[in-house]
Amino acid sequence: xxxxxxxxxxxxxxxxxxxxxxxxxxxxxxxxxxxxxxxxxxxxxxxxxxxxxxxxxxxxxxxxxxxxxxxxxxxxxxxxxxxxxxxxxxxxxxxxxxxxxxxxxxxxxxxxxxxxxxxxxxxxxxxxxxxxxxxxxxxxxxxxxxxxxxxxxxxxxxxxxxxxxxxxxxxxxxxxxxxxxxxxxxxxxxxxxxxxxxxxxxxxxxxxxxxxxxxxxxxxxxxxxxxxxxxx
Length: 232
Hints:
Elements: E1 2-5, E2 11-14, E3 18-22, E4 40-48, E5 53-59, E6 63-70, E7 72-77, E8 82-86, E9 89-94, E10 99-105, E11 112-119, E12 129-134, E13 140-146, E14 154-155, E15 161-167, E16 172-176, E17 182-188, E18 190-193, E19 196-199, E20 203-206, E21 211-216, E22 222-228
Parallel strand pairs: 13-14
Antiparallel strand pairs: 1-20, 2-3, 3-4, 4-11, 5-10, 6-9, 6-11, 7-8, 7-10, 9-12, 13-15, 15-22, 16-21, 17-20, 17-22, 18-19, 18-21
């Protein structure tokens, strides 16, 4: 079963310096039908004005992934990490027993757009940690996040995986989902997922499917992210 969540159905916020689209309930956007999916709690599509950003604030017991689509993030946290995160890179911050951080647009001229993703952990009160990596833009499936960090992936405190899928026009890809809960977010382009069309910003909850057939039906490369999640 595949349940589509269209981009225009998402919640939103406009603070001037920040324009955000919320796939799931977040901050002032509340929708009891969209509180998350399995351990996936937040997918925010954030656009940050030049020189602006999120002032220092705290998190606890949450796995927070940032995926930069354009621009550069300037990151600082209470564990001593001072990093820049350019377009194409992934960041995973495990908040553990508590961490404070700030995230700013590193440019005073160009905008910043990134996906902010929260996944609930299965281990609590741990020491906070920080990981960052550029996985490139290879066509096909690239695994970004795994529970054990195997093969150079980022290690998450949850029985979950995150993949990046890039398809050339008309290209297909068979993904074996093995009946596990899967969430698909279309980052760019237009694709078919088991013959259901999804556009940029759309998402799809997948339950009780053994295989997913992806096909790029746009005239440019299509990018998706695919979450494998624990059973609900």
